[in-house]
Design brief:
The complex is a heterodimer of chains A (432) and B (169). Chain A is an all-alpha fold and 432 residues long. Chain A is built from 16 helices and no strands. Chain A has a domain of 244 residues. Chain B has two domains: 89 residues, NADH-ubiquinone/plastoquinone oxidoreductase chain 6, subunit NuoJ (Four Helix Bundle (Hemerythrin (Met), subunit A)); 44 residues. Classes of the chains: A mainly alpha (432), B mainly alpha (169). The interface between A and B is medium-sized, with 32 and 30 residues.
Chain lengths: 432, 169
């Protein structure tokens, strides 16, 4: 027993990712932790999306299952698992069966390189960002397969729209990513594609890439932020599953567990692209503005944030416990909500322990930034009307692509500005 | 760390590639052929990965499996699958086929017997840790001219496609 504790402790104080250390066991543990964390995030996201969207439209949203509908995602999951799994008679069985698997595998595999912290990644690859973009582009294959194998018109149209959309926005997305990667090569160093190294470079250069070469970093980030919504087929670019035109697009014929795999993959993909954006432009796991707000008081204050967040959630629970209806029928729900608040509060208190908070700090900041993007996704869905398909294509090819090229050239030019100044402008000036 | 470039993985991946390649030409349904081709391309990417060339593997996945094959599927789905199912799958040009197969087989035998003198007897010294950077240095340093010529060729192809597709520019 003592040996096991010692082994775990020796691992927790390691400064390498399990992949870099070559430790298969810890890599497996990390994979399971990431998968569990993502699943919890998807459940929370499901509830939050319905709730926030409802409040944006001045509705209540789910209120019946559990206090404030907190158990609604679980009820939904049970419903989906118990639902009959239907395959259309004329469908291509094997392809129909493979499509959701490919989508969900592609969406989850990218998390192998997502850096939740300098040591909190499953592994770090030399081609990190390329791997993420490549594997996530495989998910379009699954969508196309699903649409074709259903042997029905709406899914086929949905799949065609989706693949056209994803292929076109991948170009603009790639250009924005390349301009951020160019920024890593400043300061007479080789550039890097490794996710952990990209964040380290932002730390070394003392600036998040969104603020670098203002406004070039900001424009590149904007291009990526638009392209990533299109890439994940979310509103206002959700033409692939536009319910008023195509019922549900490529997954019209899917039901039960297979449909829930598509649902899971959509949210995994949203978290994955948000992680790319956070890593490339928003400083990954770094706490806010390490170049300005560092030193003893600020580090101390920021180390309280994880605990305070959970205590705030606990306080919200208790506040709503008091506001629950006083009818005897609501007793179990009231007690459950109070218990949930107690659990959240205890987690918050544990996070105040200095040893825990230093270890958890990076994961917290990374997740907080990703959560910001998740909120943006819901916000877009609540506010923007859906694009028409020609408008979508116009935006991708005629607005974002030229902008991306311009930003790429501008980043390269400013990066080389001293060379340009000394080799071109100064001689020209003398010559004139 | 133990090396991954073991014979076991090589035979596994090349086996997958061969099966995928055979499926591509024997399936009657073009969509199934395209999917088998994707399997082949992914196995090929894995072989690059096994040979410590992660950058080439990543580019293989993002370009071929994620980009070009999507366009393949896109086109196949728009043509009628029923008609292509009825078409004859193999043509019987035995003479040409025999000559091609003999030439390829002879090449394989020649490489197998004289392989040690043709190929370098050790791996290149590019290590896995900075593979991408080394590729970049070669492409933009030593082989700059060839690289730019290739990109010019692609540009010509793009302009040609636009000219052919659009009646009025």
């Amino acid at each position: 027993m003592g040996q096991i504790v010692q082994y775990v402790e020796s691992y927790l104080s390691s400064d390498k990712t399990p992949g870099a250390a070559g430790n298969m066991f810890w890599a497996l543990v990390y994979i399971m932790l990431v998968f569990a964390g993502l699943s919890v995030a998807v459940i929370a996201m499901n509830w939050l999306e319905r709730k926030i969207l409802a409040h944006m439209q001045v509705r209540l949203g789910p209120m019946r299952v559990g206090p404030h509908g907190l158990l609604q995602p679980i009820a939904d999951a049970i419903k989906l698992l118990l639902k009959e799994d239907i395959m259309p008679a004329e469908a291509d069985g094997f392809v129909f069966w493979m499509a959701p698997l490919i989508v969900v595998l592609a969406a989850f595999t990218v998390f192998v390189v997502v850096p939740f912290g300098p040591t909190h990644a499953i592994t770090d690859m030399n081609i990190g960002i390329l791997f993420m973009l490549g594997v996530s582009s495989l998910s379009v294959l699954g969508i196309v397969m699903a649409g074709w194998a259903s042997n029905s018109h709406y899914p086929l149209i949905g799949a065609l729209r989706s693949s056209a959309q994803m292929v076109s926005y991948e170009v603009a997305m790639g250009l924005a990513v390349v301009s951020a990667i160019l920024m890593t090569s400043l300061g007479s160093k080789d550039g890097t594609l490794s996710m952990i190294e990209i964040v380290r470079r932002q730390q070394e250069q003392g600036v998040w890439f969104i603020f670098k070469f203002f406004p070039l970093g900001l424009i590149a980030f904007f291009i990526f932020a638009v392209a990533m919504v299109a890439e994940t087929n979310r509103a206002p670019f959700d033409l692939a599953e536009a319910e008023s035109e195509l019922t549900a697009g490529f997954h019209t014929e899917y039901s039960g567990f297979r449909w829930s795999l598509f649902f899971l993959a959509e949210y995994f993909a949203m978290i994955a692209v948000s992680s790319i954006a956070v890593t490339l432009w928003l400083g990954g796991w770094l706490q806010p503005f390490p170049n300005l707000l560092s030193g003893t008081p600020w580090d101390q204050i920021f180390s309280f944030f994880p605990g305070i967040t959970f205590l705030f959630l606990a306080a919200m629970c208790f506040y709503n416990t008091v506001r629950m209806p006083k009818h005897p029928l609501f007793r179990i729900q009231t007690i459950g909500l109070a218990g949930f608040g107690v659990i959240l509060g205890l987690i918050g208190l544990v996070l105040f322990i200095p040893a825990v908070s230093t270890r958890i700090q990076d994961i917290f900041w990374f997740s907080a930034k990703v959560a910001g993007f998740m909120y943006l996704y819901i916000w877009y869905r609540g506010t923007f009307p859906r694009y028409r398909f020609d408008q979508l294509m116009q935006m991708g090819w005629k607005v974002l692509l030229p902008m991306g090229l311009g930003v790429l050239i501008g980043t390269g030019a400013i990066g080389l500005r001293f060379e340009i100044w000394h080799q071109l402008v100064v001689p020209l000036w003398h010559w004139l | 760390m133990t090396p991954v470039a073991t014979p076991f993985f090589f035979y596994l991946l090349s086996g997958i590639m061969l099966i995928g390649g055979i499926l591509v030409i024997t399936r009657k349904n073009p969509v199934h052929s395209a999917l088998a081709l994707i399997v082949t391309l992914l196995a090929q990417a894995s072989i690059y990965l096994m040979l410590y060339a992660p950058f080439v593997a990543g580019v293989q996945i993002i370009l071929y499996a994620g980009g070009i094959m999507v366009l393949f599927l896109f086109v196949i789905m728009l043509v009628s699958v029923e008609r292509s199912m009825k078409e004859r799958q193999f043509n019987s040009q035995w003479v040409v086929g025999m000559i091609a197969a003999t030439a390829l087989g002879g090449l394989f035998i020649a490489v197998y017997t004289k392989g040690t003198s043709i190929f370098p007897d050790h791996a290149l010294s590019i290590v896995e840790d900075n593979n991408t950077q080394e590729v970049a240095k070669l492409l933009y340093g030593q082989y700059m001219f060839a690289f730019e010529i290739a990109s010019l060729l692609l540009l010509v192809a793009i302009i040609g496609a636009v000219v052919m597709a659009k009646k009025r520019i």
